[in-house]
Amino acid sequence: MSSNDDPVAIPMIERNPSDFPGMDTSDPDTLTGEAVLSFHNISYRETVQSGFPFRKKTYVIGRLYNINGIMRPGLNAIMGPEDGSRSWLLDVLAARKDPRGLSGDILINGKPRPANFKCISGYVPQKDVVMYTVTVRENIEFSAALRLPMTITRDERKRRIDEVLELLHLDKVANVKPRSKELRKRTSIAMELVAEHPILFLDDPTTGLDLSTMTDIISVLRRISMRGQTVIFSINQAQYSIFRFFDSLTLVASGKVMYHGPAQEALEYFKSAGYEYDSHNNPADFFLDIINGGFSALLDTEEEGHD
What we know:
CATH class of the domain at 1-50 and 62-120 and 238-307: Alpha Beta
Oligomer: single chain
Mean pLDDT: 84
Radius of gyration: 20 Å
Low-confidence stretches: 1-28, 295-307
CATH topology of the domain at 1-50 and 62-120 and 238-307: Rossmann fold
Largest sheet: 6 strands, mixed
CATH architecture of the domain at 1-50 and 62-120 and 238-307: 3-Layer(aba) Sandwich
Shape: globular
């Protein structure tokens, strides 16, 4: 991590919008074209209260510590164990946490993240937010009516709805109510995609799904990212059929980043750090094994290397 040539070395970007062609951020209320999200020395502390009414005590809990990184157009995975770190990082980047607990800088194309970022980026929560009493198409139409500007014509709105229905393989079940877990997840993603925001966040989009559905959804997200959209999502574990789609990988545990860089270079990074890899093992499982059993040891090794 200490070498500038290591994939985990995170480039600090110049805060000059001309370095990011294809996007205009001169108007803070709009976000068009490709978007590069970078974060510099961000930490997050959560303030919680406990105890009886009128006798509550306030505690401050550290959730993230001095994290740096950059997410470009493509498929950006945040992976980690069940300690909440991956979701905390995702939600902080997506402006879904109280900003008073945040320190450090989060930039969009070299400029400070706008105050209305939640309105100009997409976010799919882990718990699907869909209406079960109406059809898949009606859910997406409702989302489009709320999110798309008034300048969008009726024909353009219908085109977008039909496009996301086909993209997520919902066109054959568009008039069905989303009762199943798979249908709810696909509908939730479609409701965000219809707005065509340049950045899309997803919190554990594969949780509770079978392998076939998981692979298909990640494949859809991959196709979206290839259009120039920055897709950032958290995930607990990934089969190789899913992992091979990742462009960048961020491994996080205990609020600290263990690796950040090209997904396909992560394996060589850990092998060069002394971890033995069985060629029959799934790379994603290998990384999680390191996180769960050898994270502190790796940090100790790095600290010794800096001395």
